[in-house]
Amino acid sequence: MINTIRAEVITIGDEILFGQITDTNTQWIGTELTNIGIRTVRKSSVGDQADVILQVLHEAHQRADVIIITGGLGPTKDDITKKTLCTYFGVGMVRNETALALVTSFFEKRGREMTDLNRAQADLPANAVYMQNDWGTAPGMWFEYEGRVYVSLPGVPFEMKHLMTNRILPKLTQHFLTPIIKHKMIRTVGIGESFLAERIEAWEDALPEHIKLAYLPSFGGVRLRLTDTGTDLDQIDRELAEQVQLVMPMIEKNVFGFDDDELETVVGKLLKEKKLTLGIAESCTGGYVSAQITKVPGSSAYFWGSIVSYSNAVKVAQLGVQPETLEQVGAVSEETIRQMAEGVRKALGTNVGIATSGIAGPDGGTPDKPVGTIWIACATDQRTVTRLLKLGQYRDQNIQLTTTYLLNMLREEILLVKNEE
């Protein structure tokens, strides 16, 4: 039987609860713990209140083998983690000479005067094992207490990551005999969670008990996460690959990639492979599609430019949309979107042109064309395809969904283009 090592991550700081900073630490720590076979069972955020911190520590002790704490280790009075840990463990504070020497050197190198508050950063709970922080003055600390391991780290992300990578993770792998936890992600687009679940129900029901499936929905798509646990990495890889092979015939049309693949990255690779260039005409998305494309390093190899034609005048002057088309059927129409995609391809001299036009909201809708009515199109030298989207009332969501659906349309059309000889 595999021994599961459980972890709980606790972030400390009023600034997190007030929403003044974004907590990125817990996500990163959870990923790194999974990579060494430790399963995170809970994450908590608490303010700078000793009684609340003590309560969370007592709760974590009941359910986790490893408790990792970040934050509250600075020199000011609102940083109370060390004092609270002294109370929790029933110990006093002692000055660690190694930590003091490091703090002293830190200030001397910068030509700054060290205060008593700075020296106090070398004061640690008596039962702490000092874990040297090479990138700051806040200490890392390791505790072993009643069969549990407690780790206290600074909240500054780059300091925390350095300590975890170089001190804590190696020590955890030595302390525990951990299993291997491996995830395999299948990235789908253009299918809702419930429809996807119905399509793969038989496969899901037949999964081996030790392989777990999770549905992770996002804008326009769902990630299927397969998780396998064991002691033999080669066997785990074989088992996950076998399950992917079994499910792919059911969902292949909607799968655009695996693991860390992003839609814009996959599209970029396909454009490179097919030696195609891309031009974009955007109206309701206001440049968001172009921003996603240019997020990818090296996108200049295939992306030539875009025209954000927010006004009808620009649609006519820059994209060649016919004035009579706009007069007869309006900017949000199949005829207009077709002319936009073909027009940007011609204007920029690219192999492929894609376009968006619609009513993103929150206003501007009519009974015939309510908010969320959006047209997208993709034009190549072989054909032009269009699609009507009927989305919701929320502007940001409509822009993101439109971008996802358009990039997937682009992906599907690129796959139909034959490679140049």
TrEMBL record:
Family under the similarity heading: Belongs to the CinA family.
Lineage of producing organism: Bacteria, Pseudomonadati, Bacteroidota, Cytophagia, Cytophagales
HAMAP family listed in its UniProt record: CinA_B
CDD domains: cinA
Origin: domain of life: Bacteria
Protein name: CinA-like protein
Species annotation: Spirosoma validum
Segments forming domain MoaB/Mog: 8-175
